[in-house]
Amino acid sequence: MSKIATRYGILRDGVLVEEIGAKQLDVTCRRYLQLTVDDAQRTAVILAEKLGISSTVMDSHTVCVFEKLDTTEEINYAVAVSGIALKESRFAGEDLESYFMERTGVSSLPGGGFNA
Prior knowledge:
About 35% of the residues lie in helices and about 35% in strands. It is of the alpha+beta class. The strands form three sheets. A four-stranded antiparallel sheet has the order 4-5-3-6, with helices on one face. Helix 2 packs across helix 3. The longest helix is centred in the middle third of the chain and has 12 residues, at about 40-50. The protein is elongated and about 55 Å long.
């Protein structure tokens, strides 16, 4: 279905709770590296100049990296040696199953079952 659908409708108890485009869903359910630093703007510049990585500045202390996630150690090192205080580096992002389960009110149970 993901190969042909361009919009998704999420139903909960027979009511449409959300309609979302395929591209927006891809971005929403995308895994990324979230850096908490003392200077987000400077961090973004360093990542671009030293590693060729584009990033998104979320606020003055948060930078999100959506590409080259296999180079996390290099990313952390480049930030740290540039004199930026790296307070936290963690993977974030919601997987597609969790996104749908949360919106439909269904929770996954241990062992792979579901609870409605």
